[in-house]
């Protein structure tokens, strides 16, 4: 499996990472889910530019516990973002409008005239 990007400072801050059934978000639990326990979590919405939604979950003795992913798959290296191409396109467009066009305007305005 490829690496999965999450915008966390330290990956070891969370004990368990679980992908939702529909694949929309990855849930990072502070504590490993166990029967008759509770844990705080943060949902990272993958397709919404990694929107973070915190929450709290409790499991009873009859609950289905989430399956934890291997923590070696999780990375905070921004090259693995799934919106990396979008960021590069926006950067290109901004650089054209903020650097290239003003440079052309100033070069036309301050062009030397010959006598």
Series of H and E elements: EEEEEEH
pLDDT < 50 runs, ≥5 residues: none
Oligomer: single chain
Q: What about the largest sheet?
A: 4 strands, antiparallel
Extended strand count: 6
What structural class do the secondary elements suggest?
alpha+beta
Q: What fraction of the residues are assigned to beta strands by DSSP?
A: 25-35%
User: What spatial form do the alpha-carbon principal axes imply?
Assistant: rod-shaped
**Helical content band:** 10-25%
Mean pLDDT, all residues: 89
Cα end-to-end separation = 69 Å
Radius of gyration: 23 Å
Largest sheet: spatial strand order: 2-3-4-5
- Specify the number of helices: 1
Can you lay out the helices and strands and say which pair or pack?
Layout: E1 4-5, E2 16-19, E3 25-29, E4 37-45, E5 51-59, E6 74-75, H1 84-109
Parallel strand pairs: 1-6
Antiparallel strand pairs: 2-3, 3-4, 4-5
What tags apply to this protein structure?
single chain; 115 residues; alpha+beta; 4-stranded antiparallel sheet; two-stranded parallel ribbon; 6 strands; 23% helix; rod-shaped
Structural write-up:
The protein is an alpha+beta fold. Helices cover 23% and strands 27% of the residues. The protein is built from one helix and six strands, in the order ββββββα. It has one helix at 84-109, and strands spanning 4-5, 16-19, 25-29, 37-45, 51-59, 74-75. Strands 2-3-4-5 form a four-stranded antiparallel β-sheet, with no helix packed on it. The chain has a two-stranded parallel ribbon with strand order 1-6. A hairpin with a 5-residue loop joins strand 4 and strand 5 (51-59). The chain is rod-shaped, with a radius of gyration of 23 Å. The relative contact order is 0.19. The model has no long low-confidence stretch (mean pLDDT 89).
